[in-house]
Amino acid sequence: MKLQENIARVLERIAAACNRSGRRPEDVKLVAVSKIVSPDRIRQAYEAGLRDFGENRVQEASEKRPALSDLTVTWHLIGHLQTNKARPARELFHWVHSVDSLRIAAKLDKAAVCSGDRLQVMLEVNLGDESTKSGVKENEVMELAGHVSQFETLELRGLMTVPPFFEDPERVRPMFRRLRELAEKIESTHTPNVSMKDLSMGMSHDFEVAIEEGATIIRVGTAIFGAREG
After folding, report:
1. Is 212 in contact with 19 (CB distance < 8 Å)?
2. Residue 176 domain-assigned?
3. How far apart (Å, rounded) are the C-alpha atoms in residues 112 and 122?
4. Is residue 108 part of a domain?
5. What's the confidence (pLDDT) of residue 99?
6. Element (H, E) at 214
7. How far apart are CA 112 and CA 216, in angstroms?
8. Is residue 230 included in any domain, yes or no?
9. Mind spelling out the 3-state secondary structure of 24-67?
10. Domain count, the chain
11. pLDDT at 115
């Protein structure tokens, strides 16, 4: 029952944040981050109503998927993607949030199974300019968006960021706002096939602030599954 209670609490927090910002809860997609979570626990979360799950590593996802093949799940890759994992990533995931280079985008496009198979992708932006984190630099996003938009099997949906961790989530609000403003700037160029309708930002401790600043996708792990090791 604890899992169901956690999910209910997260949904209440989403609704409250949407109410404060004049938004609708149904316009915010909840991705349950299932890193280091067993297939059984993922199944329980599915039975409690969740349909979107996020994994950090291609290898871990490939190990879990067979045990969950009977579920209608939308899988999101939210961790850094190495070029040599592009093909299995293309086979395992419906969304990739972490495209941060033209090379990665080209590899994902080339790995398409058929011409009608379109992968939803987002560009990861390193707003904190942290050397330990992946992501394209803020001043290079617009150029990358233009290039990614030209791949026929990729559908560019928007931007993603993983900001620095602060105990006070208000400290990260300016970064969420910058990501939204950056998306609006790119959208205003009216570049063909470039859509910035989605913003993937906000995790367990700060997703309310992210929603208030325009997040359409939040990635929540600990608040749903509890603290995990690793």
Report:
1. no
2. yes
3. 17
4. yes
5. 97
6. none
7. 26
8. no
9. CHHHCEEEEECCCCCHHHHHHHHHCCCCEEEECCHHHHHHHHHH
10. 1
11. 55
Give the residues of the chain that fall short of pLDDT 50.
Answer: 230
Residues 142/189, Cβ–Cβ less than 8 Å? yes
pTM above 0.90, yes or no: yes
Q: 97: domain range?
A: 2-225
User: Residue 138 is encoded by which pair of tokens?
Assistant: 């803020």
Comparing CA positions, the residue from 223, 205, 220 lying closest to residue 9 is 223
Distant-in-sequence, close-in-space partners of 190: CB < 8 Å, separation ≥ 6:
none
CATH (domain of 27): 3.20.20.10
Kindly give the interhelix angle for 173-187 and 141-148, rounded to the nearest 10 degrees: 50
Closest CA to 47 of 19, 75, 21, 68: 68
Residues in the chain: 230
The dihedral built from the CA positions of residue 4, 222, 166 and 213, taken in this order, carries a sign that is: negative
Q: Are 181 and 145 in contact (CB under 8 A)?
A: no
Q: Is residue 68 assigned to a domain?
A: yes
